[in-house]
């Protein structure tokens, strides 16, 4: 009896987590895979269609466009956030209390909910000549720009918001990386007569490599599943110019009720995300092994 | 050593020279303006009674509370209540589920442990957006109990109840607690629940701070989930309801900003009061994840 309770105890503590995961993660995951193989017809019964849904979604030009936008948006947001995050980090590195204050202030966009940020930026981007950003631009002799209103500029405007919210997050991680750099290396570089530029290139940047890999991994995965900012800022428009993977799945699934096709799109998204994670992990593992 | 380039305490070798300090202060001011300016416009816009989207500014022109009254008439307090109920309920559930699971994973050895860890890792690699469509069907008819959670706040709360990240953070922390404390209590005849509640849990307070802050942010950030669970607008959380305020022709941007301000304040309060836990969690979370 004692032994039985001994083996049962850990499971009793795990039950809440396992039940919730099973009901709201694993059952939907299995259900999603099943649906992707069926023509889903409410009340009529589902009909097995094999891989037809996958063919439909992968050959759909609107879906292909959306995947293209997703990749562009993910790459641009990732790189932009990292560059500006790096600039912020080297600007705000240090122990002074005033710097700590500026860091806390700059970090605020990360904390705010994405949907709220989307609503704010919609207003800042107001496309009339006397909109907030356009009046700022007119001071320096630029604009007015249509921002979210034109297919030519909408995706870039969405990207700018992503960078604005992403850069301070990257800054925190890069700051942690900067703090870990041995100050004696800087001193040695100074004694060798290296300029700040050379020191940055040969000491600082190589030391930040692990942080950069982590940031790339996180950003790539987040970038592929981007939904809220696009949905709030543009809803995929104008003329589908900012449609991304998840907004396409959302409109297929919830607006046009093509549950099978939408599920196939979701399964592909999962596979791509999963493969990307695994590849980066293997690459990271191998790299660390060769460095040591 | 001479010259600005030779300072070794920062990557750029910032010196204490007057020109450098002035230039750096200027750049800092620009950074604060760029990253906080848009949030400041929310405050000024929410309290400004002009209804013109082109008149957004850093300071309110005609201070008034009219935007909140109009937003109140559009049900903003109801949406805020929804958001707070979801945040409170899901956070309590998430913290409880995480400490229970972490206790088993960190303090016990049992068959199937590796499998459980793998399962949790899988949920972390599974973007929640990917299962949105089947999840909406599952919530309409929950397996085993056959309940319909669509249109209820419980339908938003329960899927957020177990979060792999929180379980892992908690597990890592609990592993550090010396086993002697537990053994001593066991010799004194303390039962499992007593050890858990009286010995392990009180020592976990710092980690509780981290998972609470992150849990709150994660829950407040939810958009797709409340959107698909709601069967009509009365089930919306505040973040989702902002869009319907915006598309309402009868109200101006000031009213949207009043709603945005209400959605922003809880995040700001949580961040400013628990900033240390937040930053600690970001660095550990990213490295483990």
Automatic annotation (TrEMBL), chain A:
GO CC field: plasma membrane
Bilayer disposition of the protein: Multi-pass membrane protein
SUPFAM superfamilies tied to this protein: MetI-like
GO biological process: transmembrane transport
Keywords: Cell membrane, Membrane, Transmembrane, Transmembrane helix, Transport
Keyword hit for Transmembrane helix: yes
Occurrences of domain ABC transmembrane type-1 (ranges): 67-280
Keyword Cell membrane: yes
InterPro entries referenced in this protein's UniProt entry, alphabetically: ABC_transporter_permease, MetI-like, MetI-like_sf
Subcellular location(s) per record: Cell membrane
Residue ranges of the TM segments: 71-92, 104-124, 154-181, 202-221, 261-283
Family statement drawn from the similarity comment of this UniProt entry: Belongs to the binding-protein-dependent transport system permease family.
Xref: PANTHER family: ABC TRANSPORTER PERMEASE PROTEIN (PTHR30193), INNER MEMBRANE ABC TRANSPORTER PERMEASE PROTEIN YCJO (PTHR30193:SF37)
Entry protein name: Sugar ABC transporter permease
Taxonomic source organism: Gandjariella thermophila
Phylogenetic placement of the source organism: Bacteria, Bacillati, Actinomycetota, Actinomycetes, Pseudonocardiales
Automatic annotation (TrEMBL), chain B:
Recorded family membership: Belongs to the binding-protein-dependent transport system permease family.
Residues in ABC transmembrane type-1 domain copies: 80-274
One cellular component (GO) term of this entry: plasma membrane
InterPro entries membership: MetI-like, MetI-like_sf
GO BP terms in the entry: transmembrane transport
The species this protein was found in: Gandjariella thermophila
Name assigned to this protein: Sugar ABC transporter permease
Keyword Aminoacyl-tRNA synthetase belongs to the record: no
Membrane topology category: Multi-pass membrane protein
Transmembrane parts of this sequence: 21-47, 76-103, 115-139, 151-174, 255-274
Compartments it resides in: Cell membrane
Keywords carried by this UniProt record: Cell membrane, Membrane, Transmembrane, Transmembrane helix, Transport
